[in-house]
Structure formats: structure tokens, C-alpha cells
Amino acid sequence: MMTAVHPMPRRGRFTAGMLLGLTFLAGAAQASEGGSIKAGREAAQSCAACHGDKGNSNNPAFPSLAGQPAKYIASQLTAYRDGKRENAIMNGQAAGLSDQQIQDIAAYYAAQERKVASTAAEGSVLGADLYHQGRENVAACAACHHSEGHGNQPAGFPALRGLSASYVAQSLKDYRDGKRAAGQAALMTPLAAELTDDEIDALAAHIASLD
Ligand code: HEC
Ligand code: HEC
Q1: Beta carbon of 63 within 6 Å of any ligand 2 atom
Q2: What's the 104 CA to ligand 1 centre distance in angstroms?
Q3: Contacts for 147-153 with beta carbons within 8 Å, 24 or more apart?
């Protein structure tokens, strides 16, 4: 049983669990340094068609990028480029990006304010419970992703607020099936492997209701 989870400010202190997570990730932690927001804005112009103005998407098929930790964005773009995260659209979009362009784009999106355009009307009681408390073999999502889904910038843990239920459910299944194995996926795979389809749907409904 997890004990109560305290809300974590974006740049606040870490819990013991967070520090545990960080030890896994020492290598990824440098990934965001050296990006130019200005160059990133230029390089990201073509991305707005799907990911929205300044990375705030209105389309449930396309995840918002605004405010995501730079190291998370950089690791995902690198994974798409190198074929370690598979998606037909994004593998193509990332194919021509240099390491520097990836750092620039990551710096640009990380600096944008995340705005949640719309939230799902219905949440899920089961989903909220799992999110905040976890269960045996499933750590509370809030411990890493923040109680309101803001993520954790210094640790590079992505924000979840503003992601659609369909995208969240697909992502959880991809971790469960080992289709997302790059970046810091080792923190997600073991717990996603425990989740049933019903629990995934419940978590996705709860996350889509975060504003
Ligand atoms: C034609 C639509 C389209 C365009 C253009 C596009 N993307 Fe994407 N992007 C997607 C889709 C769809 C996904 C989700 C893919 C998946 O499930 O893996 C995605 C996912 C991502 C992710 C992962 C987000 C996360 O939360 O894990 C990043 C980062 C990203 N895109 C960056 C970019 C960048 C940078 C560009 C421009 C160079 C770009 N995208 C252009 C459709 C697009
Ligand atoms: C120990 C920390 C930790 C815990 C606990 C955790 N996550 Fe994650 N989560 C991460 C990290 C790190 C990533 C990014 C992994 C990567 O690089 O692909 C992530 C990624 C995700 C993503 C993909 C986001 C995107 O933009 O594509 C979703 C969805 C997600 N987590 C949901 C959950 C849910 C639901 C729970 C609870 C059942 C949970 N996480 C528990 C650390 C955690």
C-alpha cells in the first residue's frame, strides 16, 4: 500500500521515490542542455500543424508538447529518429533532425506554457484511486507525474494533463507491450505490465479529466 502522496511543486523537493527514479536516469539527465529556444521555434514551425500553436494541441490524436521537460522531448525525438519508438508519422518527422535541432526543439517546447484546451466531462473513480494511491505492484502515478498531472521538470517526467484519453491509453499499452522502450521507459514498463485493459481505460479517463 502506498502512503498518501503529497503534491509536488514543479521545481520542488523530491520524494524518496523520485530520488530512486533519478538514479535510473543519470544518463538522460544531461540531454536537454545546449538547446536554443529561438532556433527551436524555427525548427518547430512544421510541427504546429499537428501539435498546435506553441505545442498546445486541440486534437486528441496529437499530444500537446508545451511545457514538457526538455529532456523528455529530446529523448522521444531521438527515439523516433532512431526507430526506437515506432510511429509512422513521427518516425518520418524526426528522420532528418540533427542532435542540435532536437535539443533546440526540446528547449522551445519546454519553455511554452501548457494550456489544457478541454477536459473530459467524466473522470473515473477507479482511475483517480489508482492514480493517487496505486495498488500492489503499481506505484501511484502521482508520485512521479504530480497529483494534478504537471509532471516533474528536473527529473524529466512528462506532464500528463492535457493528454487525451485515447493517447494515454495507447501509450500505456505501448509500454505494456514493450513498444516504448527508449528514454526512461524502464520506469513505466513494469507497472504498465501489471495494468488490465479496464484499469488502463479508467486511468486514461481520469487523466483526461485533469485541467
Ligand atoms: C502529421 C502530424 C504530426 C506532425 C507534423 C508532427 N507530429 Fe509529433 N506526433 C504526432 C503523433 C500522431 C504523435 C503520437 C505518436 C505516438 O503515439 O507515438 C506525435 C508525438 C510526438 C512526440 C511525443 C510526445 C509525447 O508526449 O511522448 C513528440 C516529442 C513530437 N511528436 C514532436 C514533433 C515535432 C518536433 C514535430 C515537427 C518536427 C512533429 N512532432 C510533427 C503527429 C505529428
Ligand atoms: C517512477 C516514476 C513513474 C511512475 C510511478 C509512473 N510514471 Fe508514467 N512515466 C514516467 C516516466 C519517466 C515516463 C517517460 C518514459 C519514457 O521515456 O518513455 C512516463 C511516461 C508516461 C506516459 C506517456 C506520456 C506521454 O506524453 O507520452 C503516460 C501516459 C504515463 N507515464 C502514465 C502513468 C500512469 C497512468 C501511472 C500510474 C499507473 C504512471 N505513469 C506512473 C514515470 C513514472
Answers
A1: yes
A2: 15
A3: 147/5, 147/6, 147/7, 147/8, 148/7, 148/210, 149/207, 149/210, 150/8, 150/10, 151/10, 151/67, 151/68, 151/69, 151/72, 152/8, 152/10, 152/18, 152/69, 153/10, 153/11, 153/69, 153/110
> Over its length of 211 residues, how does the chain's per-residue pLDDT go in tens digits?
444 444 444 444 445 455 444 444 433 333 346 899 999 999 999 999 999 999 999 999 999 999 999 999 999 999 999 999 999 999 999 999 999 999 999 999 999 999 998 887 788 999 999 999 999 999 999 999 999 999 999 999 999 999 999 999 999 999 999 999 999 999 999 999 999 999 999 999 999 999 9
Q: Does residue 180's CB lie within 6 angstroms of at least one atom of ligand 2?
A: yes
Full domain range(s) for residue 89: 29-110
Task: Indicate whether 13 belongs to any domain.
Answer: no
- Considering the domain architecture, whether residues 175 and 97 belong to the same structural domain is answered as no
What is the number of domains present in the chain? 2
pTM over 0.85: yes
